[in-house]
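--- STAGE predict ---
source: upstream dedup step, 1 unique chain passed
mode: sequence only
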Amino acid sequence: MSMKLNSQQLSDLAIGAAFLGTGGGGNPYVGRLMAQQCLDEGLEIEIIDPSALDDDMLIIPTAMMGAPTVLVEKIPNGEEAIFSLKRLEKHLGRKAQATMPIEIGGINSTIPLVVGARLGLPIVDADGMGRAFPFLEMETFGVYGVSGSPMAVSNEYGDCAVIQAVDNRQMEWLSRAVAIRMGGCAYIAEYAMSGADVKRTAVPNTLSLAIRIGEVLRRARAAHENPIDALLTFLPSTLYRYGRTIFAGKIVDVLRETKNGFSVGRVRIDGFGPFSASMEIEIQNENLIARVNGEVKAIVPDLICIMNTETAEPITSEELRYGQRVTVVAVSVPEIMRTPEALEVFGPTCFGLSKPFVSIEHMG
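--- STAGE serialize ---
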């Protein structure tokens, strides 16, 4: 149960991952170019279904951590995450048999593809967030008992730190300081786990879902259909069973700064057509909460996706600009991400939000 990616699927994946990243996860264009270079060199990118994993296999996820705004200027050379994986293998005294994403958003959907292609490892079709989150402890892996450390953190110069923390939150706190010292973003290998743990704790088939989302949007545009309508029609057949448009308008204000290793801020959108007043969306790498006149329209962990109204291209947080015409789409996350245990790790209170989680299916 595997597939080998081609250039078209890679392009579709970048679009779908930007959508699922709900604004965060880093620029998917950069990651797509890195993975495309692997294909151009004749390397293979093999995606395997989590159900095909042997229970005793060792899987080491790889990723970028840090502020997405930094990534725009601090382009990776492609070797950083490979170095982290090899350093963690040395620490564990065991070779990885596959890698996988920790999150499906943005560049972190493609970093494992580059690692897998260059090391000859398959990439598991699953991840630990089902979207993107700003903190490393916000993983379904950790929610259901997998330790994130030991982890390796590397930069483009070959500097590396191995972190062994008492829990996943402390791992995040320590590694964030290292990433800041490395220039605001770094590349990591963490949550080393067995095939059995992957099948038990991961959000399954998110890489193939991102490819399908990109394909749905592309085919709808080619057929001169409304791509956002096509996407909302497609979602009920997936683990993300519900989605709807919650606002449309023009961006009139963007506040964004890089702070403590995160991109934080807010965006305000003045409504068009049936949408009156203004929507304000709070950002910490990802879009966290959307309000209209103080009324919550969607809240983390459900997805809040800002899309270009004309092209249906997802817009990441670092690409938000005054004057853009946008449509805001909210999407339900899989049930594994809505359990009480999961909401304790990445529900609204974990971001300092006072509003409780209410699913978008029950929002007014």
